[in-house]
Structure formats: C-alpha cells, structure tokens
C-alpha cells in the first residue's frame, strides 16, 4: 500500500535533466521539450496515454467500475463547461476577473475524487474542479469574482477552505491544520484524516511553501502537497525558476515526491489516493507534481500570446485530458455517441442555470462587512457599524 | 413586444478605461445566440472576443471597427424579442438609471429586481463620472464657487522683484512617478499648476513644462483652419509610446550629432566573400551585420560610448555588455528590439541573431523583454534610400548610429576620382557623457572599419 516510497526510488533518471552548457547565447530560442516529461520514464506516472490507451504502472493502479469511469468523464466535461462560462461572464462585464482551469481538469478531478469525505482541502483560486468533486455548489467562486461575496465560508461544513489568492500561503495553513489533526489523534487508521494543499509551479518558489515543507516533514504532518505544474507562473516558464524537476524537491525535505501525468485523470487519482492514505495512516507528508498545462490565460487579465508560442499550445492540445478520457471510453466501448451528447447537454444545462443564478446574485449591503468578523460581535465593531449606518442614513434616498 | 438591449463595453481586465474595436463579427440584421462572439476588441492588455450576453437580432452597431471606445459606452443594440410589435426604448445593460426598469421576471442579462445586472461588475463599467449623493437637509446644491484661497499676504518689507511664478501654498499634489520625472527633467513642481484631479500635477504637466521655452516666446504660429479633408489619427499604442520616449529623450539628454562619409567598397566586398564562405553557409549576412560587428569592436575600444546617465544616483553607468538595439519599422510602428550581450557573439551568431530579431519584429512577435535594456542602437535608414539623419537617442542610451544608403559616388581612390560605394554614418550621442573628442574618435574608428574591415580587425585584435 505504501508504494509511494518505491516510486520515489526511481526518480534519478528524471526526464528533464538539462545538459546544455550555460553560455550567453541569448538569441537561441528556448526549446520547449526540455520541460516535457519523458513518458517512458518510470518516475512519470501515467495510466492513460494521450490517445486513451490504458497502460500499467508498476506502483500505481486503479480499479473502477464502468460507471465510475463514465462519471469521471462527466466530471471533466462539466467543470470545463462551467469554467468556460466563467470566462464568458467576465468578457460580458459580469465578473471582475476569472482564473480559468482549462487544461487542468484531470489534475483537479482525479485528485479531488481520490479524497475521503473527512479530508480537508486547501485550495488556490483556480480549484473549481476540486470544488465540484466536494459536491459544493459551483457558484461559490462566481460570487467572489463578481464582488458580491465577502468571502465568508464554513470550511468545516464543506471540508474545503475558502479560496486563497495569496500565492502559496495556504500550504502553511494546511500544514498547521495537519499538525492539529495529529495532536487530535485523528491519524493512524483507515478513518484517519488527511489534508491536501493545492498550489502551482510558481508557488513552489515561495518561502511559505518551503517553510510548509520543512514543518510538514519535521512533524510528520498528514498533508499532501499537490502541485499543479501548469508550466507558467503567469508569464514565467517553470524552467526559469526551477533547475530540477519540481517533484525532486521533496527528497531534500525528507518525504516522497512523485510526478504524475496531470492530464491523466486515472493517474492523478491513483497517486493522490496512495499519498493521502499514507498521510492518514501517520506516515507523513508527500509531494505530488501533476505535470499539466494551462491552456488559457493565467486569468482574464492576461494575454499568453505575448510570452508563449501557439505551437506549444497545439502540442499540449494533443494531450487534452477530456479528449483522452473520451478516447478511453470509446476504445473500451464503455460509452457511445448518445452518451457523449447527453453529457454535453447536461453540461450546457448546468452552465445556463449557473449563469442565470450568477446574474441574480444579491448584492450585499455595505454594512455586511461588519457582520462576520467575530462570531459573537465586538464592541468596537458594533460602534463602527453604528457610525457607518448613521453616515449612510445622512444621504438623500439612502436605501442601503 | 420588441425588446432592445444595448451592450455596454465592460472593463475587460482590471482598471482599463478603453478598448479599440478590431472587428465586428456580426452585422445589422444578423441573428446572435447567447454567448456567440460578436466583436473582437483590443485593450492595453490583450485582444479578446466578447461573447454576446443576449440572444436576438442585431438592430444597431454603434461604433465602427478601428474606433477606440471608452469603457461604459454602448457598442451594439440587440433586439431580444424580434417578433414583438412596438419598438421599445433601448435599455442599456449598464445604465445607472436602469433601476426603473426593474422587473422580477428578468431574463438573462436583463435588469433584475435589485438592479443588479444593470450595473456591470467589471471595475469601471459603471457610469464613468462620479455622482455625489446629496446630503439630507443640505442647502440646495448650488454650485459652490471655489472660495478665493486666503492668501497670507506677505507684508512687503522691501519692494522685492515680483516673481511671476504661481507659488503654491502648502503641499504640491503629485504621484511619486511624476515627482521622479520632474526631478529627472529638472522641473520645479511648485511652479506648476496641476491639471489633474484636485489640482494634482500630472505627467503631461511636467512634460509640457519641461519642453516649454524658459522665456515665454510668442510665436505667431500659423493657425491652420481645419479642412474637411484632414484625417485625424488617434495617438495610441506604439505611436504613443514612441512619442513619449522621443520627447523624454530629446528634452533630457543634450544631443550632439556628427557625420562621416566613408568608402564602403571593401565592406561590401567582405560581405560578398563571407556569403560565399563555408562558415556562413545558410546565414543571411548583410552590410548591417558587418557594421554591427564594427560597432561592437569600436565599443570595446571606447567603453564609455556604451553607457547610461543615471540622474537619480548622479552616476554614469558603463555597461558590461552591449545590448545592441536595432530600430525596426514594423506594421505596428517603430520598435527597437535589442540583441542581448551582442558583444559575446561571434560574427556568425550576430548575423543569425539579426535575422531572427528582424523577422520576429516584422511578425509583431517581439517579446517585451527584447525591447528593454538596450545600450547602443543602430538605425538602418539606408534601406529607405536616404543618406543619413540626426537620430534621437532611445531613453537611457548614450549613443545611436544612423547607417545611410550605400550608393555609387565619385570618390578619390588612390589619387584618382573613381566610382566607389560610399555611405554616410551619423552618430548622435549624449553630451552629458560623451564629449566631442570621444564621439569623434569613436565615429572615426567606425569609419576606418567600414573602409577596411579586415585590416582594422587585424589592427585591433
């Protein structure tokens, strides 16, 4: 069961070793393949090829029913469609900004579906897919990005923390939370709790993330660090800030690291399951590098054509996570065209209903900002609220 | 009933104020579906397609392609109920007054009971002007004339010469970058009258003060009556940036330009030989590549030419490497990408880098990083058939070379007047850093190189 350890032993032949001499020949075009993992590399976990062929891995496997395979496909299609609606709504002026997950669906659905009910998720601002796997109303981020949701959130109820905008900060929160789980004695059994912290390739350069690694290792905290390496920290390609494959960093901190094909929903499920089970049994933290690609812009405020080639996007389009799963279902004859059409229709329905609900989200009253700071209020805030209300009242026709 | 909806241009990123309409993807009379892209616009951040929030029929296109539109302006009218009868007044999706149109059964994108969709959420999509709400019980809001500021009349002890500068009382309002600009340009902020909000001093105020003549000279400028045939081109994008850079450079660095006409026959012969050689097989090497090599060699002999004036620190920064800028005319306008650390490249690598740089620039794909950090620039005006010019320095660079056309001219060669290939080099330099002596020596060295590349190469190596 603890085969994550064995996977780690095979990392020395990592596919991204660069041998090119560092010489100042700055006009030389950066080749993209130096950051592309070698598929034949055993340290790169893949269970589904880009064509949808099922392949085996010595350490990781999945055993799904036909329906479960189909459900994973449905998840992928729906979260992609909802995400498209986010971009659309922003373009129509209905959201201030949107951070698209396009291209990263498999990393999020695979890892999200591998979590146990009692596990706790610490997301970034892009984890709309993980949110979906926790059966949370997908409208949550839409309220935030529309500016009508002040961020109040019951993390215990949903086993999912609020979106974190600060890059990497949630890894420390996750580690602290995981240390608390240990102190509560909730690890060591099949029902044990574990924590998963999401972040990106840019965040792994942050001090916060490195501190989180140190504490998690020192305290054997039940936390899995799930890095979606989508190749770009906004505009900075990952090879500019990391000289070794990201998953190898775990070695230095003293816990296992594994690189998984982030566009393969089966593989991301398998490695996450193993890492989370290790953690919940008290065997300490793990790092997963989901090797994937951000097909769209960093956010709707960004224009990727300014810093990367179209050809690179086309290359990654051939590894598309949704098309890959569809190819698998077709090859295995687990679904037919009617099924695919019905899923598309269902996704469109979800998107339309979400759209309607977003457009009618109520705007909070200005005074709402005082409402959820402390559970039992505070004399200072009460005084400030009264002052603010009186000020609002002083205007003609104030119906705040 | 026919129901007309206007779509208002939202802020497509964070804090943008305008966008240019690149192309319309629909025409009047076309049917549009919900979320069907209908227009492509370009902002300062990116070019994007806008999907329609309405399903219906296009009844009006309000702004033309090529126009720059302020955020908050309506751009299209769509009839969401084309089979209805009486046309209704257009309803705008972002009209602040849309509360009146509140209806509970609002459809997508229409105004809801709480007026929510009436106000687009993108920052700045609301009405562009700030409307102050009236205070309860306040006196009728008559426009209050700004009271004359109580000027503390200084008791004149002695009749002092009156200085006609508006002396600001209290603090000067200006943002830090504007203050920095004023300091760099030697403009006294206290002497300016601000045109920005609350009388704050803007970048334009500083720049116009810097470019204004010290003495107000009244020039009877010929007032040209606008004719109907005049074309007015909005200043934006690359043109705007070029203008700002040129003004900043022209009015901060004292320019000196020197010219040298030289016999380039041997330069061309050398280029021809290089093209035939095995080493340069497949490399498009031209006179510019060789001249660039000459510049790099001459810079090695006169490193001060490759430097920058750091006004903030009161220092001259002599650059370790030459980031060689090449002025390129592109469909989008003038851009000056540079070859980083060009002095570390072999002649062949330099020629390859030049080819790549110019083709990337022409395709409009030059990454921003390539356009910053230049330290010496060549402008190849010769390709346009002119002899030379007085180039203006790119901001932060100490020298720029104009490479003129190479043409057959009568020339005294070995005591006889014979036709030779002749060109003119024009070198502008920042006189704060480079004196006439250094500039002349550098230019003369370049002339020697053009006249005899191989001999000079041997002599200097």
TrEMBL record, chain B:
Keyword Acyltransferase attached: yes
Domain Lipoyl-binding, residue spans: 4-79
Root EC class: transferase
Top-level taxon in the UniProt lineage: Bacteria
Signal peptide: none
A GO molecular-function descriptor: acetyltransferase activity
Stored InterPro entries: 2-oxoA_DH_lipoyl-BS, 2-oxoacid_DH_actylTfrase, 2-oxoacid_DH_E2_comp, Biotin_lipoyl, CAT-like_dom_sf, E3-bd_dom_sf, PSBD, Single_hybrid_motif
EC number: 2.3.1.-
Region (Disordered): 80-108
Keywords: Acyltransferase, Lipoyl, Pyruvate, Transferase
Cofactor entry: (R)-lipoate
Compositionally skewed regions (Low complexity) per UniProt: 83-106
Keyword Ion transport assigned: no
Domain Peripheral subunit-binding (PSBD) per the UniProt entry, residue ranges: 173-210
Protein family per UniProt: Belongs to the 2-oxoacid dehydrogenase family.
Stated name of the protein: Dihydrolipoamide acetyltransferase component of pyruvate dehydrogenase complex
Upper taxonomic lineage: Bacteria, Bacillati, Actinomycetota, Actinomycetes, Micromonosporales
């Amino acid at each position: 069961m603890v085969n994550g350890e064995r996977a780690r032993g095979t990392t020395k032949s990592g596919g991204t070793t660069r041998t090119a001499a560092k010489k100042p020949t700055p006009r030389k075009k950066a080749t993209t393949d130096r950051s592309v993992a070698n598929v034949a590399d055993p340290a790169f976990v893949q269970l589904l090829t880009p064509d949808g062929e099922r392949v085996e891995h010595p350490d990781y496997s999945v055993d799904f029913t036909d329906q479960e395979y189909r459900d994973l496909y449905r998840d992928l299609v729906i979260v992609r469609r909802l995400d498209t609606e986010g971009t659309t709504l922003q373009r129509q002026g209905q959201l201030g900004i949107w951070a698209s997950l396009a291209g990263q669906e498999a990393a999020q659905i695979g890892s999200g579906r591998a979590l146990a009910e009692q596990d706790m998720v610490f997301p970034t601002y892009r984890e709309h897919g993980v949110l979906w796997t926790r059966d949370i109303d997908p409208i949550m981020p839409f309220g935030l990005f529309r500016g009508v949701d002040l961020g109040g959130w019951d993390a215990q109820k949903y086993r999912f923390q609020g979106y974190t905008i600060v890059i990497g900060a949630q890894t420390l929160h996750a580690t602290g939370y995981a240390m608390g789980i240990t102190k509560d004695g909730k690890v060591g059994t099949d029902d044990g709790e574990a924590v998963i912290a999401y972040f990106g390739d840019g965040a792994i350069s942050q001090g916060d993330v490195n501190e989180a690694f140190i504490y998690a290792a020192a305290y054997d905290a039940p936390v899995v660090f799930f890095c979606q390496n989508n190749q770009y920290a906004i505009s900075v390609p990952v090879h500019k800030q990391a000289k070794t494959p990201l998953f190898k960093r775990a070695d230095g901190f003293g816990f296992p690291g594994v690189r998984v094909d982030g566009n393969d929903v089966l593989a991301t499920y398998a490695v996450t399951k193993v890492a989370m089970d290790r953690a919940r049994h008290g065997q300490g933290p793990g790092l997963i590098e989901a090797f994937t690609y951000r097909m769209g812009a960093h956010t709707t405020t960004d224009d990727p054509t300014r810093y990367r080639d179209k050809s690179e996007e086309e290359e990654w389009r051939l590894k598309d996570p949704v098309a890959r799963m569809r190819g698998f279902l077709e090859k295995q004859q687990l679904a037919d065209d009617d099924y695919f059409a019905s899923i598309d229709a269902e996704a469109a329905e979800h998107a339309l209903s979400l759209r309607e609900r977003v457009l009618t989200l109520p705007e909070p009253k200005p005074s709402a900002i005082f409402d959820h700071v402390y559970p039992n209020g505070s004399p200072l805030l009460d005084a400030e609220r009264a002052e603010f209300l009186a000020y609002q009242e002083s205007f003609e026709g104030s119906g705040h | 009933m026919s129901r007309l909806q206007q779509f208002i241009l939202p802020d497509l990123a964070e804090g943008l104020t305008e966008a240019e309409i690149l192309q319309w993807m629909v025409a009047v009379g076309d049917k549009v579906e919900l979320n069907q892209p209908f227009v492509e616009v370009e902002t300062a951040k990116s070019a994007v397609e806008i999907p329609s929030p309405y399903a219906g029929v296009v009844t009006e296109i309000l702004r033309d392609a090529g126009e720059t539109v302020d955020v908050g302006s309506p751009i299209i009218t769509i009839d969401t109920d084309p089979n209805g009868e009486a046309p209704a007044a257009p309803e705008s999706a972002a009209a602040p007054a849309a509360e009146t149109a509140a209806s509970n059964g609002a459809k997508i994108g229409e105004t809801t009971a709480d007026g929510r969709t009436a106000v687009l959420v993108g920052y700045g999509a609301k009405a562009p002007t700030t409307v102050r709400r009236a205070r309860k019980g306040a006196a009728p809001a008559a426009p209050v004339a700004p009271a004359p500021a109580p000027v503390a009349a200084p008791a004149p002890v002695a009749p002092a010469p009156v200085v006609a500068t508006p002396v600001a009382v209290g603090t000067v309002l200006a943002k830090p970058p504007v203050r920095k600009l004023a300091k760099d340009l030697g403009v006294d902020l206290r002497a300016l009258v601000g045109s920005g909000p609350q009388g704050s001093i803007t970048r334009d105020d500083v720049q116009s003060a810097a470019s204004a003549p010290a003495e107000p000279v009244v020039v009877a400028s010929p007032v040209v009556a606008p004719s109907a045939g005049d074309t007015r081109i909005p200043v934006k994008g690359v043109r705007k940036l070029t203008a700002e850079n040129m003004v900043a450079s022209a009015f901060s660095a004292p320019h000196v330009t020197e010219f040298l006409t030289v016999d380039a026959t041997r330069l061309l012969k050398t280029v021809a030989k290089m093209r035939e050689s095995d080493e340069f097989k497949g490399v498009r090497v031209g006179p510019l590549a060789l001249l660039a090599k000459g510049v790099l060699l001459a810079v090695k002999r006169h490193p001060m030419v490759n430097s920058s004036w750091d006004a903030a620190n009161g220092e001259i920064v002599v650059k370790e490497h030459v980031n060689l800028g090449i002025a390129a005319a592109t469909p989008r306008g003038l851009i000056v990408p540079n070859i980083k650390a060009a002095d570390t490249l072999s002649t062949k690598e330099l020629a390859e880098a030049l080819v790549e740089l110019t083709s990337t620039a022409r395709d409009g794909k030059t990454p921003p990083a390539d356009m910053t950090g230049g330290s010496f620039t060549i402008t190849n005006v010769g390709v346009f058939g002119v002899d030379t010019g007085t180039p203006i320095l790119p901001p932060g660079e100490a020298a720029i070379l104009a490479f003129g056309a190479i043409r057959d001219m009568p020339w005294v060669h070995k005591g006889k007047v014979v036709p030779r290939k002749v060109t003119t080099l024009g070198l502008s330099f920042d006189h704060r850093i480079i004196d006439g002596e250094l500039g002349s020596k550098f230019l003369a060295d370049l002339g020697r190189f053009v006249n005899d590349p191989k001999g000079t190469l041997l002599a200097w190596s």
